[in-house]
Design a protein that fits this description.
This protein is mainly α and about 50 residues long. It has one domain. The termini are far apart.
């Protein structure tokens, strides 16, 4: 969904594109990576306890 919004802003040469790109790169992507790492870590620990 964010990529679609990016494409629309880029195609329209919208003034919000630099702000959107900054927020996406510095907030949304790191939060997504941290969430995925946390979920992976919990699953990894759970699987090691059950072994």
């Amino acid at each position: 969904m964010a990529y679609t919004a990016y494409l629309i802003l880029a195609a329209a040469h919208h003034d919000m594109l630099p702000i959107f790109s900054t927020v996406l790169g510095q907030v949304v992507i790191p939060m997504t990576v941290a969430t995925l790492a946390f979920v992976w870590w919990k699953d990894f620990r759970r699987s090691r306890k059950s072994s």
